[in-house]
């Protein structure tokens, strides 16, 4: 009955891949550093001041942020897909993205300014407000039926999307800024942005990772989970709230980046990781690596210009996803 | 001493005013194997959910070892009560071992790893259910019977004292059904109390110690299987007649649901005189009530003749659109002699069928009870210029009974 040790090395590989890709991304870009030069990170004092600025003040925060956002989105996606028992759910289903975008658009167009983080802050508050509103809409008595929640999220999302379109229509010369924000990206992100998301990750990620067992029980159905002594309603509320916070912080700093949160957990499931105790940490790592590499590609492929990172993830990810689907049609 | 499990005057409603369960009370002892039977929508699953505390009773309470189950902490209750639900999830790719291991959730705190104790519990659960051979196989690749056994093992890994199952055998073929029932029976021998909803009366009749009959939210009967299950109680429960037959080599009887009067000739034999469709509703009613019916004389292809043929009644036919002839008369008389009653449907009378009344008169002389539907007496039903009316009068004078509708007829014939 002892479990075989097979597959236990896989998580290790993924964690290594994370480290390698961070170093790799650190090396890519102007200045022609190579992979091994990235190791200079560990002996920073030996670098010239200009190099130090490029590596530490410009590139490293961007690398870390894209990794965190990718990881947060796909971890959030994996958790929500587990809670909803629906593989088509993405982390924006609760209305976070449209809420955040709405807040950002309002901030950009109204021209209010109270510091460097005006737009992210507005986006974050608006996202949370939207999620709260969706939760209130979906409450039936003491319970929150998931189908109702899904539909409420969709409805509110559409409403805000319409408002955003309206805002774009009326935006005039700010249109470029608005469109750029809604596409999402990491251009010009600094340590301040990393500092913005970090607290949410420090709290949210460990909480979410600790719910692998409960999410596994959800696979057998909510009633079974309840009969196993899990407080299903409370667990749902907690997980949804934490994911909402985490995703809202991601969207607020980086804009709406699609695809990662939906597809990374999905691909991992197709590869045979249905056990949430593995799926959740793997989603975090793989999502991070995917977005990091996509961003690296986005900022270097038509240098010195940049592609929106969401375009890169979708352009490369969608065909890969279709390929996987065709490979194991029955695996869903 | 208080019983192990006591369900005390429990009522439940999903919405106000629509009680699904009303005033249910019963007690179980350790090691009982209880089968719950009842028609669809009688509240069986709701009762099971109440016992598992997935629902809270509107009135009354459920006591486990003398303590209200509402007062148990969640995981403490999950260590005592395990549930196997009706739905079998299909899309789980986890190895069966992991599925069964989920049963240990109530024993593990959030950051605790599974210990030796947990592995032993899982091993025991899989051994009892004979699922060890596919411990490492993905759940989704198992057959229906294997999945159900894994799900039972999952429940057993909780090391429950009370195991609740909702139709554990409904998706399974006979061999797997027997397998599951044997497993459950063995569990009760270990002191686990098993309470299961069954679809099939004979699962309960053969395997359970106690039976609980639920009808429309009421507890119809509860007690030892041999006392509770009978032809009468099952007919009352399901509204279908049952016959108790001896098992070829076991002590307990089997119950066979019956359909149609052929299987129950004891309700009597009615000879029906009808025609032109007047006999169709009467035939349906007599058929449902379990009577043997003979029909005649009717013309071939008449809708009454068609209905009689469809229900398998013995029928004497005359050629289409022809008056009743001598030969048909003799044949009918011979057939109807075995009948207990003669019934005259609310038909119309013409020169074609008026001789059927001679038949009725002859049978009444021989001592048969004759019932006449009142509509058959109406003047506007008579197209023989009074001939039929005359015969009917004689019939009534000699003791024929008039009934107004078919239900009244049944009341007379009880």
| End-to-end distance of chain A | 28 Å
Low-confidence stretches of chain A: none
Strand content of chain A: under 5%
Chain pair with largest interface: A-B, 25 and 38 residues
Work out the radius of gyration of chain A: 20 Å
Number of strands of chain B: 18
Structural class category of chain B? alpha/beta
Rounded radius of gyration of chain B (Å): 30 Å
Q: Which oligomeric state applies?
A: heterodimer
Quickly give the structural class of chain A: mainly alpha
- Categorize the overall geometry of chain B: elongated
- Give the ordered list of helices and strands of chain A: HHHHHHHHHHHHH
Beta-strand residue fraction of chain B:
15-25%
Unreliable residue runs of chain B = none
Shape category of chain A: globular
What is the percent of helical residues of chain B?
A: 25-40%
Mean pLDDT of chain B: 89
Largest sheet of chain B at a glance? 6 strands, mixed
- Largest sheet entry of chain A: none
Q: If strands are numbered along the chain, what order do they take across the biggest sheet of chain B?
A: 6-7-8-3-9-10
- Number of helical segments of chain A? 13
How would you portray this structure in words?
The complex is a heterodimer of chains A (332) and B (414). Chain A is an all-alpha fold and 332 residues long. Chain A has helices at residues 9-27, 49-84, 96-110, 118-138, 146-170, 175-183, 191-209, 212-219, 222-227, 232-254, 260-270, 276-300, 309-327. Chain B contains 15 helices and 18 strands. Chain B is elongated, with a radius of gyration of 30 Å. The A-B interface holds A 1, 3-4, 210, 213-214, 216-217, 219-221, 223-224, 226-231, 269, 272, 274-275, 331-332 and B 49, 52, 54, 74-79, 81-83, 85, 87, 89, 91-94, 97-99, 102-103, 105-106, 108, 110-111, 119, 122-123, 132, 135-136, 151, 154, 158.
């Amino acid at each position: 009955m002892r479990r075989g040790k097979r597959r236990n090395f896989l998580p290790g590989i993924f964690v290594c891949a994370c480290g390698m890709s961070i170093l790799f991304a650190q090396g890519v870009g102007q200045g022609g550093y190579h992979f091994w030069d990235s190791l200079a990170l560990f002996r920073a004092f030996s670098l010239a001041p200009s190099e130090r600025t490029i590596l530490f003040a410009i590139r490293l925060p961007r690398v870390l942020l894209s990794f965190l956002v990718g990881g947060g989105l796909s971890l959030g996606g994996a958790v929500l897909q587990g809670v909803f028992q629906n593989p088509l759910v993405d982390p924006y289903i609760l209305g976070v993205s449209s809420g955040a975008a709405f807040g950002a658009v309002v901030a950009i167009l109204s021209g209010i300014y109270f510091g460097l983080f005006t737009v992210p802050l507005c986006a974050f508050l608006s996202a949370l407000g939207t999620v709260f509103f969706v939760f209130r809409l979906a409450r039936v008595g003491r319970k929150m039926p998931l189908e109702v929640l899904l539909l409420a999220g969709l409805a509110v999302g559409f409403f805000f999307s319409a408002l955003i379109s309206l805002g774009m229509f009326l935006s005039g010369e700010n249109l470029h800024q608005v469109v750029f924000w809604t596409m999402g990206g990491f251009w010009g992100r600094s340590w301040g942005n990393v500092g913005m998301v970090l607290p949410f990750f420090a709290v949210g990620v460990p909480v979410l990772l600790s719910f692998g067992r409960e999410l596994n029980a959800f696979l057998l159905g909510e009633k079974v989970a309840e009969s196993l002594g899990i407080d299903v309603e409370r667990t749902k509320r907690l997980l949804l709230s934490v994911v909402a916070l985490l995703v809202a912080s991601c969207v607020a700093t980086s804009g709406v980046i699609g695809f990662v949160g939906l597809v990374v957990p999905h691909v991992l499931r197709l590869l045979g990781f249905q056990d949430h105790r593995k799926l959740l940490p793997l989603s975090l790592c793989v999502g991070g690596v995917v977005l990091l590499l996509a961003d690296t590609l986005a900022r270097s492929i038509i240098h010195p210009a940049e592609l929106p990172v969401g375009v890169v993830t979708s352009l490369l990810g969608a065909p890969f996803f279709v390929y996987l689907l065709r490979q194991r049609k029955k695996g869903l | 001493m208080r019983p192990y499990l006591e369900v005390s005057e429990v009522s439940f409603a999903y919405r106000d005013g629509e009680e699904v369960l009303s005033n249910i009370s019963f007690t179980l002892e350790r090691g009982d194997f209880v089968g719950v039977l009842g028609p669809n929508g009688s509240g069986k699953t709701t009762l099971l959910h109440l016992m598992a505390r997935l629902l809270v009773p509107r009135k009354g309470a459920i006591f486990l070892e003398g303590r209200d189950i509402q007062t148990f902490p969640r995981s403490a209750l999950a260590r005592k009560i395990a549930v196997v639900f009706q739905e079998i999830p299909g899309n789980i790719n986890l190895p069966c071992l992991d599925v069964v291991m989920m049963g240990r959730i109530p024993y593990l705190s959030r950051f605790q790893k599974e210990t030796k104790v947990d592995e032993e519990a899982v091993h025991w659960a899989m051994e009892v259910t004979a699922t060890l051979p596919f411990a490492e196989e993905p759940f989704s690749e198992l057959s229906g019977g294997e999945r159900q056994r894994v799900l039972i093992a999952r429940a057993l890994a909780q090391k429950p004292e009370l195991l609740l199952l909702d139709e554990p055998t409904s998706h399974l073929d006979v061999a797997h059904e027997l397998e599951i029932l044997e497993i459950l029976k063995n569990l009760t021998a270990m002191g686990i109390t098993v309470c299961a909803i069954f679809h099939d009366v004979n699962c309960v009749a053969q395997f359970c110690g106690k039976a609980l009959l639920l009808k429309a939210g009421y507890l119809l009967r509860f007690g030892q299987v041999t006392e509770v299950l009978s032809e009468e109680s099952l007919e009352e429960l399901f509204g279908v007649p049952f016959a108790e037959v001896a098992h070829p080599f076991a002590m307990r009887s089997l119950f066979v649901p019956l359909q149609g009067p052929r299987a129950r000739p004891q309700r009597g034999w009615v000879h029906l005189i009808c025609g032109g469709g007047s006999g169709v509703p009467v035939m349906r009613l007599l058929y449902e009530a379990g009577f043997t019916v003979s029909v005649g004389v009717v013309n071939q292809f008449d809708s009454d003749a068609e209905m009689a043929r469809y229900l398998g009644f013995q029928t004497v036919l005359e050629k289409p659109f022809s008056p009743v002839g001598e030969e048909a008369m003799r044949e009918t008389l011979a057939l109807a002699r075995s009948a207990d009653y003669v019934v005259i449907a609310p038909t119309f009378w013409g020169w074609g069928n008026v001789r059927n009344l001679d038949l009725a008169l002859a049978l009444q002389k021989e001592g048969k009870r004759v019932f006449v539907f009142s509509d058959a007496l109406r003047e506007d039903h008579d197209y023989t210029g009074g001939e039929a009316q005359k015969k009917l009068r004689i019939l009534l004078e000699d003791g024929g009974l008039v009934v107004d509708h078919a239900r009244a007829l049944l009341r007379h014939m009880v």
